[in-house]
Structures are given as C-alpha cells and as structure tokens.
Amino acid sequence: MQRNKNVQYDADDLYDSADEEEYGGEVPEYTTEDKDNFATLTPVVRAELEETGLSASQTEIEEALWHYYWDVGKSVSYLKNSRTPRPQQQPSEGGGKKGQAKAKSKFDQAAEKSAEKAGPTPMPPTSAADWFRDIPWSNLSPEIQGHLVPTVPPRPYPKLLGGSSKLAKLAEERRRKAAAAASSNEAPSPDSNGSFNSLDRLNKPKDATKENDTPASQPEPKRYPIRKKREPTPPPREPTPPPPEPEEETPDIRASPTGFGRTLSTGPPHAALASSMTLQDMLGGAEEAVDAFTGPSPDDIVAKAQAHSKGEITAAPFSSKPKQNASSDAQLAKKTEQLQVAESTAPKVKSKGLDVPKLWAEGQADRKAQAAFVVIGHVDHGKSTLMGRLLLDTGGVSQRDIDRYQKQASELGKSSFALAWVMDTGSEERERGVTVDIAQHHFSTASTDFTILDAPGHRDFVPNMIAGASMADLALLVVDANQLASGLKGQTREHVLLAKAVGITRIVVAVNKLDLSAPEPWSQSVFADVQIQIKSFLSEAGFSEPNMAIIPCSGLNGTNVANSPPSSSPTSWIQPPIHLTLLQALEAFTPPPPALQTLTQPLRLQISDVFRGTLTAPLSISGRLRSGSCQIGDTLLLLPSNTQATIRAIEVAAEPREYAVAGQIAVLHLAVHGDLEAEGLRAGDVAVLAGSSLPSSASPSSVDDGASAPPTVVKSATARVKAVQALLPMGVEVFLGRWMVAGEITGLKCTLQQQQAGDVEETGELEARQVVVKKKKPRVIRQGEMALVELGLAEAGVVTKGDRVVLRNGGATVAVGFVEAVRA
Ligand SMILES: Nc1nc2c(ncn2[C@@H]2O[C@H](COP(=O)(O)OP(=O)(O)OP(=O)(O)O)[C@@H](O)[C@H]2O)c(=O)[nH]1
C-alpha cells in the first residue's frame, strides 16, 4: 500500500499562526475532546511501548498522539523508532563511495590538532532567529526595505485532495481554532532588546510592522507562496526501502578545507557571526536585496525568460502583470543563460539503453494483467469498508492489522469502521495543511495486479475524484442498496458523469449493504430494483450495457466480495454465473495490455503528485504514463516549468523497476538539473522525454491524432463540450486531468449535432465523428446541447488536442468534453 505525499500548495502554505501551532511552535490549547482522547489513548500507547520494553514520558506520548491525530499505531511506531538507536556509520578505509565516511587528510588532522590547542572556536548561530537578530535594518532606507507578504497562490487548488476526509476535517478544525486564537492575540511585543524579532517582522504584513515605516508600494507577489520550514517528520511506521543508489556520484576523495584554508576563503571566524553581518552580506548586495523583494520573484523571472525565449506565451486574459521593459529584458537574458548553465550541470545517471517496447513484448506471456480502478460513490455508502474487505480477502492487508484496527476503533466507539481504517493506515505521514494526498493501494490475484485509487466521496473533494479517475482504467461505483435515491441526487450521479467525462468506459457497480435491506436482509427484489435503476442511469450517462457489471454484496460482512456466498438461504440466489463476485467482475473488466504502438510513441506523463522523498531521492513525481515508456537514466523535460530532470529510480505498484510503460502508474525519483525547487513543480504538470515531441493524448475517435504534436504550453483552447448546465461566456474552473486552472469561456463558437443517428455506443455521443454545425455563435448553450467553445486559461500549461476537459463553476460541473484545438 502506498500513499504519496504531495507538496502541492494552497493558501495554507503561507506563514500563519495556525501553522506555527501545527508545526510545533506554541503549545496548542486542547479542547475537552482532545483531553479525553489523551486520557484514553495515552495508557494504550504506554502499554504497547512497555510490551516492547520501552518507555516514554507523558509529554512525548501526548505529542505523538497529537501529531498523528490519535492514531495509536503510528504514535507507538514513531516512539519506538525514536528510541531505536541508528547504526553508527563506520569510517571507511580509503573513502570513496557516497555514504561512507571520508578519510581524513593530513591537513585535516593537523587542523584538528591546532583547533584543539586554540580552544573552542566561536560557533556561528544555529537558529534562523539568531541569524537575523542583529541585522542592521536601519541601515537601509524604509522605502527599500523588503516585506514578505502572504500571497494567494497563482494556481487555485482544491483544499484537500484525497485522503481521509475525517482526518482532513480534524486538521481543518485545529487550524480554524488556531487562526481564531491568533487573531485575538495582540501584536508581538518588543523583545528584551527593545526590538521586534526580525523573523516576526519578515513574516508580518506590512501594516503590522509599524516601526519599519512601510513603503508605499506593495511588492509584487511571489510566484510561489512562502513555505515554512518544518520540524523533521517522525519516521513512518513502515519505512519504505530507499531507492537504489544513483550511479552518477563519483567518490569525493578531496580533503575538506583546513582551518587555514577556511580562514583564507571566508575570512576570520567572526565574519560568520550575524552580529557583524549586514543585510547586503546575507542577501548579496543591496541592489539584489531590494530586487528580491520589490521586483518579480526569481521564479517569475525564470518563467518569463523561458516564455520570452520561446516567444509563445501570450498575455493572459486575466493577467495583471506589468509589461517587460528593456532593462528587465537584459535580466531575462541573463537568467535564461543561467538556466542553460544549470542544464549543463545535469547529473549523470547511467541509462542501460534498454529497448523497453521489445522487452515488454517479450515478457508479455509471463506477466499478469494490470488494472487501476477508481472507487467512486456517495459519502458513507461504504467505499472504504468495501476496499478494506477486498484487501483483507486478497491478502493486501493482514488479519493481524485488522485486529489491531478493530481494537483501536473499539476504543473510540467506532468498531464498525475497522475495515475502513485499512484505507487510512496505508498513508504515510502527511505534511498537514499543505500536503495533498492521493491514496493508492495494491493487491494481486492469480491473474491480475490491481491498483486501487481511493477517491473521496464528499462533494468538496470532487476535484480529487477527477484526478483519481483520470488515472484509472475502470471505475468501481459503490451504492448503498438502501439509499440509492439519495446517492443518485448526490455524488453518485456526479461521480459517474465525471468518470465518463475523463474517458472511463467500463464500470463495476457494487450494490452494497444488502445485509441491511428491508423488509428482510439480502432481499433479491431490493437488488433487482436497484439494478434496473442503475442500469438506466448508467446508460443515460453513456455507459454501454456490456461495459457495466452490477454486483450484490456486503463489504462489512465480506459477502460476495472476494468469495461466493454459501448456497444456503438468505444469499442462495447469489450464485455464479448469474452473479459474479466483485473480484471476478473486476478481473473480467481488466483492460487489455497496451498496444506496442502506444509504447513506441513519445512519453507523456501527467504528474499526479510531487513529493519529497528520502535523502537519496529528494524529489519524486508520480503519475500515469499515457503513452510511451521511460527507464532509469532517461532525461525528462518537465513542463511548463521547462526544467530537466534525470530519472534515478522507478517504482511501479510500490516495486522497484528498471522501466515503466504506457498505462502504468509509476513513481519516478528524480535528479533535477540545476536548481528546481519542489515548489517549481505542480501536480498537473507534464513530463515528456527531453528532446522528444509530444503525442496527442489517448484521444476520442473524432480527433485526428495521426501526427505527434510538439509540446505545447498554451493559454487558450477550443473544446467540444456537452453542457451539463446552460453555458454563457463565463468564468469556470478548468480541469485537464490532474491540472486545475482558473479559466473562462471566452466565446461560444457554435452548437453541434450528430449528422445521423449512428452507433455511438462505444465512443459516446459527444465523441461522434460525424457532427454538423447546428447554430453559429449562439448566445447561450442550453443544457444537454453539444457545442464548440473557446477557453481562456489564467495560466499557461500543457494542453494537447484530445485531452479530456471538465468545466466547473461554483462547485458544480457545468460541461464535459475534450480539446479540439490549442492556440499558443
Ligand atoms: N451493515 C453494513 N454496514 C456497512 C457496510 N459497508 C459499510 N458499512 C458501514 O457504513 C459506514 C460508512 O462506511 P465507510 O466505508 O466509511 O463509507 P465511505 O463511503 O467510505 O465513506 P466516506 O469515505 O466518508 O465517503 C460505516 O459505519 C460502515 O461500517 C455493509 O456492507 N453493511
């Protein structure tokens, strides 16, 4: 099981007092409920620790519980890990490889001896607050002093993608309380030196830092929000093995600089002390310092430089950024040059030069089928419980784990959620407030390797559902047999519509909770009723009958999930071949392996998650390969940031691999060329092979995708859509797979109709090849009509002909369709 950490950013990225508390600043105010939880769970954690011969203080246990949202298992695991001494690194002879201690040179030894004689050297300050304490701010005139102000991130992102909505709610609640408490606090008082803490001043909005005499003009917001440094995350319960060591590192056999050398190159020891440093010293000159805060951010400059050098990104319809002048042109040229230099510093990871399509074809006979399915459905219809059961019955999770969840859930009076907790406990530590999770779980049967993409049921998280569905081969819709009507009014309807909109054609429906049906449990007539309604609903949504399977089951009891029920009453009517088990239906709907032709196309992977990994793999991305293949050592071009990165390691279904191919969801551990921060990459960005052309995505039949289009970073497109609600020129949120961007319907080109009622069962009405213009330049597109619309995007991104698109407004889906054409 795996849950990828995402470092997506939203408004919560900004410094705020809530973050301070969340990340270990001040001691939080505990509510009565918190206190109750402490009282109940602390002894449990202590007992579990004592079982393994370890002990921890009350505070440590409380901190762990708080950190892990009352998750006893994780807290115990963390406390255990923090008490297990790490193996000491043995000094190696001769030094050489990374990870081994470097041999001390004679210079080093001499330097150490002289240092011992000279006594303790003044140490540079260790905390950021110390570094900034004595900055002579007053040396700069107030007009040019910089202020970091919280900004709204340029890309609007959903608050939380995926993960457990219950945990998310708890985190959200804490943040709200903390924010309320902070707003009632007074401004910080001067410290003992009579001055405000410099970090406080940096973080404060300008009107709050009166003694700085706020400059009149606001600095332009930074492209990316300021991120707060966090305490290191405690180790996860089941640490994943680090990816293989990169081969590019050559051993560093140089001696470290001697004390004398250090003195020559950095000046006397006191030069490192904050008290003797000026702002210029720290930020590299007054001019730079001023620019760093008042001009566009470095990211802005680089992005503009890229756009400038390509000459392809036109002004955004919503852009309010000032135009470039001559002097900034020079700056841009310089930054572009720097980018090129960065590219030349590319890390060298050896590629084995595998012929991946050939290898894939050769191994086909021995390989299991693969399928990724997204679990959709209305909130509380039993998705998590059913998935927990499926994982348990297929060996994806052990009975021991279930017993543990059962015990913990019972302690909180929620024993019926024990199976649902399987889905939550697979998660690694999340970076609260800014981290976005999409949960992936893996299990295998004799014939198929499955990936579960866990989509949240709540309507607030529909964007995540779109993201999950856009990576799936098929959908598993879970409906509560006793609550079908409410589901069809709610997320069941919207999820099905969206699954179809992102290109899913096969759907398995689990008619769940039949053990609770009325008038009697396992009522065959209740199932038959639901079956009829669901069939007609799915047909309306565009699913063909051979591509839907409707299965009676109970996730809680495990009836007809992985195993057929006993032939005795009351489930005697559920027998194959009329009724498959849920697992049999999923196996039957597994897609065929990708065609060799898809593998030989250029690579295209839309990034679904960006996350920081381990020390050896600091930046990783995950996503589904839409076409092509990649292998360790390949150089990727990441768009629209236009950065290059080399693949150091690959994981598919949590297993290390040498390559990944179209259709697979892979995690790629990257070595980025140059200086890309994780902030420079976003979920929704696209990775292609550097130097290759970009293929059209798996596109509907009407789209002529014969030729591979070059990578296009664009801000406008024409889309063929079906109106879910009446459409006018209006603001919309545009979803292109995982990428969500603010946009606008800038024009209504025409309405369309099928030329003749043909067989569109496979493709769906929207994708019909033969369409004619019904009305040009309509004023409005009515609900249910098909139309061509012009879209403007607030930001440039990779959009390709054939990409599926969903338009939403005010939290509701207003149109679905695909891209017909793009314009730079
Ligand atoms: N009797 C019965 N109860 C069930 C069944 N499946 C789930 N439940 C109960 O329904 C409640 C909700 O189940 P979840 O699995 O959390 O539902 P969900 O759809 O994942 O909910 P969200 O993740 O919040 O969208 C829990 O109390 C479950 O124990 C079932 O087959 N029979």
TrEMBL record:
Pfam families linked to this entry: GTP_EFTU, HBS1_N
Pro residues composition-biased segments: 233-244
Bias kind Basic and acidic residues: ranges: 105-116, 201-213
Positions with biased composition (Polar residues): 80-92, 183-200, 321-330
GO cellular component, one term: cytoplasm
Catalysed reaction, written as an equation: GTP + H2O = GDP + phosphate + H(+)
InterPro entries recorded: G_TR_CS (IPR031157), HBS1-like_N (IPR015033), P-loop_NTPase (IPR027417), T_Tr_GTP-bd_dom (IPR000795), TRAFAC_GTPase_members (IPR050100), Transl_B-barrel_sf (IPR009000), Transl_elong_EF1A/Init_IF2_C (IPR009001)
Family statement: Belongs to the TRAFAC class translation factor GTPase superfamily. Classic translation factor GTPase family. EF-Tu/EF-1A subfamily.
Protein name (Swiss-Prot/TrEMBL): Tr-type G domain-containing protein
UniProt source species: Salinomyces thailandicus
Taxonomic lineage: Eukaryota, Fungi, Dikarya, Ascomycota, Pezizomycotina
